[in-house]
Automatic annotation (TrEMBL):
Stored Pfam families: Wzy_C (PF04932)
Subcellular location: Membrane
TM regions (residue ranges): 34-53, 60-79, 85-107, 119-142, 148-165, 177-194, 224-241, 314-337, 349-369
Protein name in UniProt: O-antigen ligase
PANTHER family: LIPOPOLYSACCHARIDE BIOSYNTHESIS PROTEIN PA4999-RELATED, TEICHURONIC ACID BIOSYNTHESIS PROTEIN TUAE
Superkingdom as given in the UniProt entry: Bacteria
Keywords in alphabetical order: Ligase, Membrane, Transmembrane, Transmembrane helix
Length: 399
């Protein structure tokens, strides 16, 4: 086989691997990681490395993602964690390298971008249907309850599915009924089945943001009023929502530093620990994987529970890489928001939703560090960035 034919074959199979990975992201950790490994393997054989330098110059988000991973790599050298533990944390951030790789594989390939996006939506819908089947007793529940995934991760994908299907219901009038039905099903799953508060909060943020994207000023005010009425309605109709909100309020009211064992109480401890550690080394941080080691030293003799991360990506990066690393992460999110302005409307709104979801979700969780959320962010944002810029006259994207 000639070099050109081999590269063309790898490029084609790399596209299939991207689509398969997007489908598996909401479903299976092992299949998702296998898919991403295949993406790397086919990328190496595709010859797309030759355009990587030009891509990094033209796509600030790709360059910033690669630079942030390089920073994590360098920070291994001054980490107090043992080499194996530091490298294990470093590999948790490998999605940063996948972003430019996926972008280069999908660059300008409308069919691949559309199929991969559809693959993610299909995977999220399968997750939702499995959750309903478990909730109704049609199939046995898994170790995480009514989901294949941990409740935080499940609720994250349900919020995204609701946002995605809402956007499609608006943009695709010929298929409005099925997409609107999928939106209502994803919303009901969040309200009545999954206990993830992160997803509930993300859903409310995305729903409000969708109103800002789609409505004029007068209708925005009406939409905000409807949203304000819907939130207490959901609180009264769903014990799932009301119990989780009440639990959060109780966690805050009864919080005692160092002794609270609630989910939110321990987070408050870890956030306080993180701020103290950032103050110690504000510029370059303590090194990759340093949080667990430095926190153990900080809480020695106290009752605070140890953790491998503070469940806040901004603080986690700040502890490891300092304010310079945090600035890089914020610049990465900002660059994607700016790049979204050049895309056609449907993809612009989706990329903005992804950035907003990461920005808000990282306040309560370490989503770049977490495998499923990190892969989603890298793959789907890269695919949307790979789309051609907006044309003077845009058309409704095909299913």
């Amino acid at each position: 086989m000639t070099t050109n034919r081999r590269q063309a074959a790898c490029l084609r199979w790399g596209g299939f691997a991207v689509i398969a990975t997007c489908f598996c992201i909401p479903l299976s950790t092992s299949l998702m990681e296998l898919g991403s490994a295949l993406v790397i393997l086919f990328w190496l054989g595709s010859g797309r490395a030759t355009i990587l330098g030009r891509l990094l110059r033209r796509q600030p988000a790709a360059a910033l993602a690669a630079l942030l991973f390089l920073y994590f790599l360098v920070a291994v050298s001054y980490s107090p964690a043992d080499w194996g533990a530091a490298v294990a944390i470093l590999m948790k951030y490998r999605e940063l390298l996948l972003l430019p790789l996926v972008l280069s594989l999908a660059l300008g390939d409308q069919a691949l971008i559309r199929r991969a996006e559809n693959g993610f939506v299909a995977g999220a819908m399968v997750l939702m249907l499995i959750s309903y089947a478990m909730g109704l007793g049609l199939i046995p529940s898994a170790k995480y309850g009514n989901s294949l995934l941990f409740h935080i991760t499940h609720s994250f994908f349900m919020a995204l599915l609701a946002y995605w299907t809402l956007q499609r219901a608006i943009d695709r009038p010929r298929h409005r009924l099925p997409w609107a039905s999928a939106f209502l099903l994803a919303t009901a799953n969040l309200i009545f089945i999954t206990p993830g508060r992160t997803g509930m909060f993300t859903f409310a943020v995305l729903l409000g943001f969708a109103a800002l994207q789609r409505l004029n000023l007068k209708k925005r005010l009406a939409g905000c009023l409807v949203l304000i009425l819907l939130i207490p309605a959901g609180f009264m109709l769903s014990t799932n929502v009301s119990s989780r909100v009440q639990q959060a309020l109780q966690d805050i009211i009864h919080y005692e530093p160092g002794t609270s064992r609630s989910s939110l109480g321990m987070r408050l401890d870890w956030w306080g620990n993180s701020i103290e550690l950032i103050k110690e080394r504000p510029l370059f941080g303590h090194g990759t994987g340093a949080f667990a080691v430095r926190q153990q030293e900080l809480i020695a003799g106290g009752a605070t529970m140890p953790s491998d991360n503070p469940h806040n990506e901004y603080l986690f990066i700040g502890v490891q890489l300092g304010l310079t690393g945090l600035a890089l992460f914020l610049a990465l999110l900002a660059s994607q928001w700016v790049a979204a302005a050049g895309l056609e409307r449907h993809r612009r709104f989706l990329l903005q939703g992804i950035v907003l979801t990461m920005a808000t979700g990282c306040l309560m969780n370490s989503f770049l560090f977490d495998s499923h959320q990190g892969h989603f962010y890298a793959f789907l944002s890269a695919l949307l960035l790979a789309a051609p810029p907006e044309r003077p006259t845009t058309s409704v994207p095909a299913d």
